[in-house]
Design brief:
Shape of chain A: flat
Structural class of chain B: alpha/beta
Mean pLDDT of chain B: 78
Shape of chain B: globular
Number of strands of chain A: 0
Oligomer: heterodimer
Mean pLDDT of chain A: 89
CATH superfamily of one domain in chain A: MetI-like
Distance between the termini of chain A: 50 Å
Strand content of chain A: under 5%
Structural class of chain A: mainly alpha
Distance between the termini of chain B: 19 Å
Largest interface: A-B, 18 and 27 residues
CATH class of one domain in chain A: Mainly Alpha
Helix content of chain A: over 70%
CATH topology of one domain in chain A: MetI-like fold
Low-confidence stretches of chain A: none
Strand content of chain B: 15-25%
Order of helices and strands of chain A: HHHHHHHHH
Number of strands of chain B: 10
Helix content of chain B: 25-40%
Radius of gyration of chain A: 21 Å
Number of helices of chain B: 8
């Protein structure tokens, strides 16, 4: 089987695959950044002690964690143009879906991270006169994020793999691009093997990075 | 300067503080003693509003701590606090630990904050450790940095919450020396401790200097247990008071209000 393995088809369509990978990475990074920001706000709301804020936040988190991602993607694909009254394109609708979905998971990770910072540290920040937001920015969150790095990266790897679900709404990410090439050139075996290898290499190096960081920040 | 009137605090049904009242004047050193679990740390945390209390009033420099309208961060910036477990910020170097609140709370310029930081590190004898991280320092050194961090805000009073309890015996003195010097400089201090050693050393550290005609008074408050329900607690309190009386007897030349 391997003597028929045609590497030319990969090289010829390389630019096409790279474009797909660019979209996959862009989507992953944008979803991580957006999810982190929104997740942090949700976590702060959930821990705020104001019952309305924490109720809103926990409802949000529980709702999105009970939904299959693929449903959320579908849903936003049809819902966002309806709300905005104009088509936004597949990319933006999946981006919004990913940010909102990931925020629910990041919220829980960040909440655990904030709670991992000892009460004494919170007191120490307050005692020198820092207000709530200064204390969060300079004392609590830096320590929380340091404790969370391995879990956040694990979540990022899961997200990177999950982005392939955008094929359901026809956004041309890495997997969809490879699929198109495979069907056009009738080289299914070559293309999907390449895709698998690329995913394997990226996710494996991510995992190695996590392990290194874990050893470095081991408490 | 610090006045507590009938302060009571409950954790649910459990009463931690029961009608605590005291007055601390400017320049006084108050040592609050009592066995573990008697609520000393809780009381000292009430003074700068880190813990809430349900009844009574605490006035600091004329400002009511319990009042909802009080700007607590501003009030806290005037009260230095030193913790049992040092609580230096582990992700910041020694210099940044001391500089942070100067820049963010007092809005000092970087040069001003640098100057103050160096001056304070020299005062606590750690000028050569400035760029290290807290984890690279010994317990005694960390606690001295914590004192410098509190002093950087130019506080008008200092609260010490079990400042030597987490230290190895050989490191207690380096922290104690800094505290004695502070008291001699006229700093108003509340020191919470369950350790006889610290109490004796603090008092003896100040005694020779006080015998020389200083008007400084050391106020000693023995803390009663809020909840006297259990026999064990009662007996540990009695044991504690007996111990204390022996020590007071030993240093009877001291000007102690009991």
């Amino acid at each position: 089987m391997f003597d028929q393995f045609d590497t030319n088809v990969i090289l010829e369509n390389l630019h096409f695959l790279i474009e797909g990978m660019q979209l996959t990475l862009l989507l992953t990074i944008a979803a991580i950044c957006g999810g982190l920001v929104l997740g942090t706000l949700l976590a702060l709301a959930r821990l705020s002690g104001f019952w309305i804020l924490s109720l809103v936040s926990s409802t949000y988190v529980n709702f999105f964690r009970s939904m299959p991602l693929i449903l959320v993607i579908f849903w936003f694909y049809f819902l966002v143009p309806l709300i905005l009254g104009q088509p936004v394109g597949g990319y933006y609708s999946v981006l919004i879906a990913f940010v909102l979905f990931e925020a629910a998971y990041y919220c829980e990770i960040i909440r655990a991270g904030i709670q991992s910072v000892s009460k004494g540290q919170v007191y120490a920040g307050q005692a020198v006169g820092l207000n709530y937001f200064q204390n969060m920015c300079y004392i609590v969150l830096p320590q929380a994020f340091r404790n969370m790095i391995p879990v956040l990266l694990t979540q990022a790897i899961i997200l990177f793999q999950d982005t392939s679900l955008v094929y359901v709404v026809g956004v041309k990410d890495f997997l969809v691009s490879a699929d198109l090439v495979a069907n056009r050139e009738n080289r299914i075996f070559e293309m999907f093997t390449t895709v698998a290898c690329v995913y394997l290499i990226i996710c494996l190096s991510g995992s190695l990075l996590i392990r290194k960081l874990q050893m470095r920040y081991a408490l | 300067m610090i006045e507590l009137r009938n302060v009571s605090k409950w954790y649910g049904d459990f009463q931690v503080l029961n009608d605590c009242s005291t007055m601390v004047s400017k320049g006084e050193v108050v040592v609050v003693c009592g066995p573990s679990g008697s609520g000393k740390s809780t009381l000292i945390k009430c003074v700068n509003g880190l813990e809430e209390f349900q009844k009574g009033e605490i006035q600091f420099d004329g400002i009511s701590v319990g009042d909802k309208k009080t700007d607590l961060p501003k009030l806290r910036s005037k009260i230095g606090m030193v913790f049992q477990n040092f609580e230096l910020y582990p992700h910041l170097s020694v210099v940044k630990n001391i500089k942070l609140a100067q820049l963010k709370v007092l809005k000092r310029s970087v040069e001003e904050a640098d100057q103050k930081t160096i001056q304070l590190l020299e005062r606590v004898g750690l000028a050569d450790q400035a760029l290290k991280f807290p984890a690279q320092l010994s317990g005694g050194q960390q606690q001295r940095v914590a004192i410098a961090r509190a002093l950087a805000m130019d506080p008008i009073a200092m609260l010490f919450d079990e400042p030597t309890s987490a230290l190895d015996p050989e490191m207690i003195n380096e922290v104690l020396d800094v505290m004695v010097e502070l008291a001699k400089d006229g700093m108003t201090m509340i020191v919470v401790t369950h350790e006889m050693v610290l109490l004796v050393e603090l008092l003896t550290g100040l005694s020779s200097w006080m015998r020389g005609g200083s008007k400084k008074t050391v106020l000693l408050t023995i803390f009663s247990i809020a909840n006297v329900g259990s026999e064990l607690r009662l007996s540990s309190q009695k044991y504690f008071i007996i111990n204390l009386l022996i020590i007071l007897f030993k240093i009877s030349k001291l000007n102690v209000i009991f």
